[in-house]
């Protein structure tokens, strides 16, 4: 990950948090696997948490 050292700390943290989620999605698409409901719910929770965190960070700037 050479590009990560040039990213801002917040952006690098988001990339690192989303990496397992994107890996699971890529594996499901590549190998045509069906994801269990538990993994789908976990992925949705990760995405919602990321969006909420980013929205909360940007809100004071407005």
Automatic annotation (TrEMBL):
Q: Does the keyword Metal-binding apply?
A: no
Identify the GO cellular component terms for this protein.
plasma membrane
Query: Major location, coarse class?
Result: membrane
Entries under InterPro entries matching the protein: EamA_dom (IPR000620), EmrE-like (IPR037185)
Q: How does it sit in the membrane?
A: Multi-pass membrane protein
List locations, semicolon-separated.
Answer: Cell membrane
Cite the entry's keywords alphabetically.
Answer: Cell membrane, Membrane, Transmembrane, Transmembrane helix
Q: Per the database record, which ranges form the EamA domain?
A: 2-50
Q: Which residues are listed as membrane-spanning?
A: 7-31, 37-55
The domain of life for this entry's organism is Bacteria
Name it: EamA-like transporter family
Q: What is the lineage of its organism?
A: Bacteria, Pseudomonadati, Pseudomonadota, Gammaproteobacteria, Enterobacterales
